[in-house]
């Protein structure tokens, strides 16, 4: 019995001993974990030179790779641990100046100069900081007043020299490049910004605009869409996206209606598309040309000339616009203007046979335009019958015979001579056909250069005219004293 009790007591003692040992082990384990977890914090807050040096070294490495946020975090930790650590203030002032956080940078420089008085390098950098700060403010003021060239000079030559990581200056530079229509440079600058921050909304917006003004609309659309995925309610991105979408829709509708022959609808669509963004010259030049072509088809020469001129004001080398404006000038009977435009087009594209043929037709039209219009002189249409031509001739000859126009004899002679010439051409079937074909008959008939065809003689062919039944008023056989004979049909 006593042996059993002793064994039981021993067992209990062993269990108790094991529990104590286990408890001690757990306490040591917890203590060790606490040391491991707290060590970084203790090291960071420790003001021993070795720990500060480690923070400064890490900050320097981050600065080299332009990880400025991480560098500032290390520098702030070092300063918090040791407020007299001058080198940390120096680095922090430099980083903040790079980022154009000028007020914070100035405080750090001044703190450094308290610790290291009369440090010439620090004093120089502080002076440069104040110059950069002033230049940035001036650049924004100049941008607001529309002096984009001067504003860009301040950004390029001052601000980004002393503060190369200044996001405000970089963004302003992109806006200035867009205003200067240097779209390729704007794309390049926004590329650098997006390389550092691929989700920068302003960079996505402005890069999209640059592609838009270069008429690379698909790429522009992708930039706007990416920005809207990041911020669906961004007003500027929404405006750019829907503006482009509407422009493409209107432009396509104008072209489709022109192709389908719905010319008046096409005109309205072209005008609506042009009104959406007057600054989009690279796209609008094609809209102006498209509108010109439709107006030519509608016979609206004056309006077509205006549209083609708008296209040529944007791109003076646009051959098709010259050709179309020439066609429009034909409609307004500006023969010389037509030839001038088509000559320019032919000079720019000497191998284009269509342009050469159009020029030949225009030159022929110009030549024809300088001929006398015998139909107009007799007051008959180009489809008039020979009977109508004779009737018109008889009426006008009676009206303008010099013997009946004593008070204005010289004018009457000129008119009478012109009427007789018209009848000489149109009253002869063969000559009329040749005239309608575009042949020049004036020299052949003795009408060129010598004062015109003379039905009164005077050294030329003598004509006598007799009307059947005589002239009204009883002058049988001609006007008395006139010496012109009578009219004969």
Automatic annotation (TrEMBL):
It comes from the Eukaryota. InterPro entries: DnaJ_domain, DnaJ_domain_CS, J_dom_sf, TPR-like_helical_dom_sf, TPR_2, TPR_rpt. Residues 373-439 form the J domain. SMART domains: DnaJ (SM00271), TPR (SM00028). It is found in: Endoplasmic reticulum lumen. TPR repeats lie at residues 86-119, 201-234. Its main location: endoplasmic reticulum. Keywords: Endoplasmic reticulum, Membrane, Repeat, Signal, TPR repeat, Transmembrane, Transmembrane helix. The chain crosses the membrane at residues 12-37. GO terms for cellular component: endoplasmic reticulum lumen. This is DnaJ domain.
